[in-house]
Design a protein that fits this description.
Blueprint (H helix, E strand, L loop, with lengths): L3 E2 L4 H8 L4 E4 L3 E6 H6 L1 H11 L3 E5 L2 E5 L2 H15 L1 H15 L13
Parallel strand pairs: 1-2, 3-4
Antiparallel strand pairs: 2-3, 4-5
Length: 113
């Protein structure tokens, strides 16, 4: 059984996870297992997460955890670092507005900047 899950609906996913093998979202399909199922097949789940680069939700009662590839975790940490840097975000917003307005500079020598 698959169902649609949108941001903020993780708790409802846990309610259905006991009956689901896969959770279909608008972003990706992720596999779901219980903590017992994970313990019994840890190598298979680990290898599958690395192969497919899709997250694995591991449930235990009304709580859960997510196993994701290290590459994805590092990318999320980099994005959080940028989002926490207010001066950088301001520069990005200004640059985006300048690009939209056609205010571009052609750079042929990066050292000249």
């Amino acid at each position: 059984m698959c169902f649609r899950m949108f941001e903020g609906e993780y708790n409802s996913a846990l309610a259905y996870s006991r009956n689901c093998t896969y959770l279909c979202t608008k972003y990706w399909t992720m596999q779901i297992t219980t903590i017992s199922g994970f313990r019994a097949n840890i190598k298979q789940y680990y290898d599958n997460v690395l192969l497919t680069e899709e997250p694995l939700i591991i449930t235990k009662g009304d709580t859960g955890a997510v196993l994701i590839p290290l590459k994805e975790y590092n990318a999320m940490q980099r994005r959080l670092e940028v989002l926490r840097n207010q001066p950088l975000l301001k520069d990005i917003r200004e640059a985006t507005l300048q690009m939209a307005a056609g205010q571009l500079i052609e750079v042929t020598d990066i050292d000249a900047l």
